[in-house]
Amino acid sequence: MSKSSVEEIKDQSSGLRGRIAQDLSNGALSHVEDAENVLLKFHGTYQQDDRDLRAQRTKEKLDKAWSFMVRSKMPGGRVSAEQWLIHHDLCVKSEGSIRLTNRQGIQLHGVLKGNLKEVIGGICRSGLSTMGACGDVVRNTMGPAAPVKDAAHLDAHLLAEELSARFLWRSQSYADIWLDGEKVEPDWASVVVSPSVREKTIAPEAAETGEPIYGKHYLPRKFKIGIAIPPCNDADVYSQDLGFVPHIVAGKVEGYTLLVGGGFGMSHGQLNTRPFLAQPLFYVPRAHAVDAAEAVVTTQRDHGNRTERKNARLKYTVQSMGIEGFRAECVRRLPSVPVEAPKPVHFATVEDNLGWYEQGDGKLYCAVYVSMGRVTDRANGPAYLSAFNEIARELKLPFIVTPNTNLIIADVSPALRDQVNAILARHSVPHSDGMTAARRVAHACVALPTCGLSLSESERALPGVMDHIDAILRELGLEKEPILFRMTGCPNGCGRPYNADFGFVGRAPNKYAMFIGGSIAGDRLAGLEQKTITGDAIPAVVRPWLESFAKERGPGETFSAWFGRTRKAGPAPDPEQFHIEFAERAAKLAGQRVEAAG
Ligand code: SRM
Ligand code: SF4
Question: Given this structure, which CATH class describes domain 355-430?
Answer without folding.
Answer: alpha beta
